[in-house]
Design a protein that fits this description.
- Strand 7 and strand 8 form a beta hairpin.
- Strands 1, 2, 3, 4, 5, 6, 7, 8 and 9 form a nine-stranded antiparallel beta sheet that branches. This protein has a three-stranded antiparallel beta sheet with strand order 10-11-12, with no helix packed on it.
- The longest helix is centred in the first third of the chain and has 18 residues.
- It has 171 residues and is α+β, with helices and mostly antiparallel strands.
- Helices cover 20% and strands 41% of the residues.
- It is built from two helices and twelve strands.
Length: 171
């Protein structure tokens, strides 16, 4: 019976490690957080996400309450974050718990695995800390009026400070 328990434990551990086996793909773009340490973030008032820019190695996003910004390095399945910072706004206790867990998970992330539109962030042992799904590409109809941009999307109009289009970045 002890041998069977050890076999089951070994199989369970291998499933976790396989989840973060190095699989190729691009981190570039926006990824929606599904869960942190196996707990869904669907109840969060603002959906947590991460956006990776491979050109300059920057990462930004939302932790659930606060905005996040910093740098990352991704090579051969190894992922690390550096120079991370965030805004310091208050939110509900539930959202604060999610944000704290996500922040801790990012701090302990050492590996990443991309499988199609799924991204897993894992610690150095291969344990999955965060799962994300690639966000669908957004279509925007942007036009300039009197030197000011107004960007319309399916979600409604927003100011360019909210727009992630590179043609607006020099403003």
């Amino acid at each position: 019976m002890k041998v069977l328990n050890h076999v089951v434990a070994a199989l369970a551990a291998s499933v976790l490690l396989v989840s973060c086996a190095s699989q190729s793909g691009s981190l570039s773009g926006k990824w929606i957080v599904n869960d942190v340490d196996g707990k869904s973030v669907s109840e969060c008032e603002t959906t947590p996400y991460l956006s990776f820019d491979e050109q300059d190695g920057s990462v930004n996003g939302c932790l659930g309450i606060n905005l996040l910004m910093g740098s990352y390095s991704y090579k051969n399945g190894s992922l690390s974050f550096s120079n991370m910072g965030s805004t310091m706004m208050a939110g509900s206790p539930e959202d604060a718990d999610i944000e704290r867990a996500l922040s801790d998970a990012l701090e302990h992330t050492a590996k990443a695995s991309i499988d199609g539109d799924k991204l897993s962030l894992c610690d150095k042992s291969g344990k999955v800390l965060v799962t994300l799904t690639k966000a669908p590409a957004e279509e925007h109809d942007c036009s300039a009026e009197e030197g000011e941009h107004n960007c319309a999307s399916e979600e409604g109009e927003h100011n360019c400070s909210d727009c992630e289009h590179s043609e607006h970045s020099e403003e």
